[in-house]
Every structure is written in structure tokens, then in C-alpha cells.
Amino acid sequence: MKTRIIPSLLVAAHVVLAEREPMAFQMFDVAPSTSHPAMAADLAWLEGGRASACVSTRPEGEAAVSAPHFQVLYGRMRIDRVAPFQVDSVVDRTDRTRLRLGTAMALSQIGAGSGEPGAFDLALGVAFERSGTESKWSNLKGDHQWIDLSAAARLGGWRAGVVLADAVDVSSDSGIGSDRHLELLLGRRQDDGLAWGGGLDLPLETDGEAGLRLGISREFREALVFQGELSTTYSNETDPESGADEFVRRSLDIRLGTRLKFRPWGTTEGDSWMRQFVDPHIRPGPDGFLLRGWEIGLSAGWDVVTGSAHPAIEIAKTF
Amino acid sequence: MKTTIRILLAVAAGVFAQNSVYGPTGLNFVPSAFASEGGRWSGSLGGTTDDDPLWVSSIQGRFLDDRLEVGLSSTVWLVEGDSVGWNPMTTYAPVVPSVKWVLDREDHGRQSWGYSVGLSMPLGAWAAAGWRIRLPLASPEIHVGLGTPLNSIQGFGGVALDLCDLDGAVLPVRLTLDGAVAGSTGTLGSAEESYWSVGVSTRLGRNLTFQVLHRRDRAYGLVDDGRRPDGTSFLRILWNFGSASHEVAR
């Protein structure tokens, strides 16, 4: 999932940071209610498909399709590094493309479990990823392909998972190193629409980054969703002057988002005014409902250290 | 002692006025996801405690079964990052409009969840979700939201804590902590406001609330560190009146 370019090859350190920024679809991947599962193993339990397109001000464009047992995600982004809190002060530009293909299978789906809702189940997932990065500043390009392995368990509303990121290094250009690390996730999805979770990233490389993520999501009337996530990363670095090892915070990000899901309004839900938003009806007759199955979302991430913000708009269709 | 408790309980029979400095009902500066309680009409008047005071005032009314709140405020923004530093901006009278719409409220026993959207300065169009739980000793609530006036996008949030007696009755002391982080979208320039604030409110009677606030704004690395580098303190009087509110029905 993450690519790290070896600094000793004179690739700027900020390129490394840019590579670690999550794509918009993965901004809220800690809570179990995420729209496109970031952990491939979770694909086994998807109950329906979802196709999304997302744009933001970076500029950035992403498209994703997730369905039971399958996911494809493609994104292009341009990351400008600017002097903190100054406008029009771009000092570097990094273009990045990313492709992700994922698949998963649960034990209950091969006859090894009851498959009953709420019963214990275990799923295994595999994701192939390709990341291409080009720094305009250094004029260097890097291409990296790797495989993530994941396992997830669920019991009732609880979800737990582990991801071995960059488990298999398929190929990489000269100058691109492995960023093998372990991601541990634990979360719960409640019947009242609340979902929350936490994640821990443990580096498996000597100069890797450790991370902590906390996320929460609340769904109102199965139509309005509000999500939030806090993430921070740390690395163990050696002070060039004193030679002492220091635990340095590399990032602190806040992400917030909201979504409106257009869906059929149930006959038992009453004739609330909110029906006009959730299930707009523009013509008489059963075919007069508009936007059923569509979603629109607005989200943003703030880098608290530098003050930069990255808003995004997502349009999605469930199937 | 008994007299003191009787007075406290008598004061506790009212509810806090919750006008934020920026207008919509909320915490100190950020809006909340719930409609305010108490009287239909509410207002506030206050100012900073330094030698060059900023005067802030607001008035709000609630309509349509408390789903819609319409207000006016005198505060446009308190900090704007520009080429000469921080530039507070207020108006002499409350003429800055704000609208808040409570989209949904769900009550599950002691817990309540809410979702609101609105238009106000300096957040622009915003959405917020909130949670509250009633406990015997203290009743906390949390609000989180995001908003954009197009040239920036802001995340905001805060917590409030109502102190209670051991039976869950709210005492006339309310602690609030909120903050916001903003970043330029790069589309129409930069207007960034990032801060945290802490406040203490106490009821002076059934309809009056007194609030003390302190706010710290984040330095943006500008040449001028701002007119108020040690933060800004406010004293405010808030009031509410009118017919009792209706609970927002699901």
C-alpha cells in the first residue's frame, strides 16, 4: 500500500511523505463502515457493489469499484508541496498514479462456517498494487508493484484484521525500497448506526514508520453518514548532530466527511419531510423516483502540522 | 448550606442559552448538532477584555418545531490571515445572518444523536454531527463538523460538560472546549482561521447565562504575530425567553 523511495538516492524526503498520503477512498478506512474496504479481506463480506468517482482540489481524480470478492481502484493525483501557510508557493510537484486490485474469500463461503449473521467467520484477502511516482523537482520516476496479504475476523458487530503490507515485492525500479509493515485493526459496528475502530501500523523495516489511527462513523436513518478519523505517524530517526535516536512525529491528520445516501423510503418510516431528500419523487408512478442508489459525499483532510487541506467530492452508485 | 443548594437547584431549573460567538447555537465558537433548549428566542452580548475591545452580539429564533434556527450576529470572523497579520472583523450591530437546520435527532435512552446543517460565518456551509449522554454526575456532549466558505475548508469540533448532582439534574455550571482547523482550498485565496477556546458558563437565573471564554489562535508563520498574540478573552451575557421549545421529533 505504501511505497518508500530510498533517500540516499537523492530523492527528496517529501516525495516519501507524499506517497504515504491515503487516497480519498481510504480516508476513513479504520471504522468498519468504510465504503470501499481498504483491507482486501473485508471484500468477502460485502453485500452489494459500489462504484465511485471522486475529485478534489489537488487536482486529483479517483475511481473505484467494490463488489463482493472483488475491488479495483485507480487514482491519479498531483501533490504540490508548498511552504507552510503561504499561497501560491509551490516548491515541488509530484504526480502519482495508483492501481489496486483486490479479492477475498471467507471460510463460511467455502463450507467451513455457518454463515449465519453474527456468527464467527474468518476471511483471507489478497491485493495487488502498482504505484507510479514522478517528482517534477528531481525529475525522477519510480514504479513499484507489490502484494498485500490480509486476514479478517468478525463476530457479531466486532471486526478485527491484520494486513501484511508489501508482503511480496513483485517489482520495483531502482531506488525504490520496500515498506513492509503490519497493520492491526479492531472495530465494531453497532445496530444503531455507530461504527468505530482503531488501527496500529507497525514497521517491519528498520527505518519504517509507526502509525496510529482512530476512526468513528455514525449513520442517521441509513441515509446520512458522518465520518471522522485521526491519524498520526512516527519514525525513529537519528539526530545528525548528537547521534541520538529520536522518535519524531511525521504527520498528524484529521479527516472529516459526510455522505447522503439516496435510498427507497420504507413504508413504515412515516411520511417525514426527510423523505423528500432521501427518496426524491419527481413524477407520479413507481418509476418517478430519482437518484435511488446514488450517493454524494463531501470530505476533507487537514494536515495539522502544515495547515494544508484537501477537500474531496465523491459520487457513488450502489448496485 | 441547604439554602445554597436550594438556590442552585432553583437556578438549575432553567437551561443554558447557547449562542455561539459566531451566531448559531453551539459551544463557544462552533455550532452544535442539536437545537438549543429553553425559550424560542435567544441572544447574547459580550466583548473582549483587552484595551481595544471587540464587541460581539447575536440574536436567534427557532421555528418549525425547533428544526430551523435563524439568527443574526455581529461577528464575521475574529482572525483572518492576510499580508499584514491577523485582522478581526465584526460589525457594530448583529447583521451577519446565520441559518441552522436540524436534519435529524435520535434519542436512545440516555443517549442522543443529532445531525445539523447550516450557513454561517466564517464556516460558510457546514454540517455537524453530535452525541450527548445524560449521566448522574456529569453530562458530556461532543460535536464534530466541517464547513466551507469556498476559499477554505474547515474542520471543527468541541465538547461540553454539564455538571450534575448525583441524580442527574443539571447544575448551573457548563464547561466548553472547542476548536477549528482550516486550510485554504487554493481556489479563491486564503482565509484561514485555526483556534481552540475554552469557556465556563453559569446561569444567573432562569433566563440569563454568564460566560467567560478564552481563545487562542494559531500562528501561521506570518511576519506579524497578530494583534492578540496572548489570546483573546471574552465576557458574555446570554439570555433566552419565549415559549418552551418542542422536542425535535424523529
Textual characterization of the structure:
The complex is a heterodimer of chains A (319) and B (250). Chain A has 319 residues and is mainly β. Chain A has a single domain (4-318), classed as monomeric porin ompg (Porin, Beta Barrel). Chain A contains two helices and 16 strands. In chain A, the strands form two sheets. In chain A, strands 2-3-4-5-6-7-8-10-11-12-13-14-15-16 form a 14-stranded antiparallel β-barrel. Chain A is globular. With 250 residues, chain B is mainly β. Chain B has one helix spanning 2-12, and strands at 39-48, 55-63, 68-73, 75-77, 81-82, 85-86, 89-90, 96-108, 111-120, 124-133, 138-148, 152-164, 170-184, 195-203, 208-217, 232-244. A twelve-stranded antiparallel beta barrel of chain B has the order 1-2-3-8-9-10-11-12-13-14-15-16. In chain B, strands 4-7 form a two-stranded antiparallel sheet. Chain B starts with a helix and ends in a 6-residue tail after the last strand. The model of chain B is unreliable at 245-250 (pLDDT under 50).
Full CATH superfamily name of chain A? monomeric porin ompg
CATH homologous superfamily of chain B - what is it? monomeric porin ompg
Structurally, the number of domains of chain A stands at 1
The whole-number mean of residue pLDDT values of chain A reads 81
Number of helices of chain B: 1
Taken as a percent bin, the fraction of beta residues of chain B is over 45%
End-to-end separation of chain A? 27 Å
CATH topological fold name of chain B = Porin
Order of the strands making up the biggest sheet of chain A: 2-3-4-5-6-7-8-10-11-12-13-14-15-16
Number of helices of chain A: 2
Give the N-terminus to C-terminus distance of chain B in angstroms. Answer: 42 Å
Give the beta-strand count of chain B: 16
Secondary structure class of chain A reads: mainly beta
CA-based shape of chain B: globular
Tell me which protein chains meet in the greatest interface and how many residues each side has: A-B, 28 and 33 residues
Strand residue content of chain A? over 45%
Q: What CATH architecture of chain A do you see?
A: Beta Barrel
| Largest sheet data of chain A | 14 strands, antiparallel, barrel
| CATH hierarchy, class of chain A | Mainly Beta
Query: How is the CATH topology of chain A named?
Result: Porin
Uncertain regions of chain B: pLDDT < 50 for 5+ in a row?
245-250
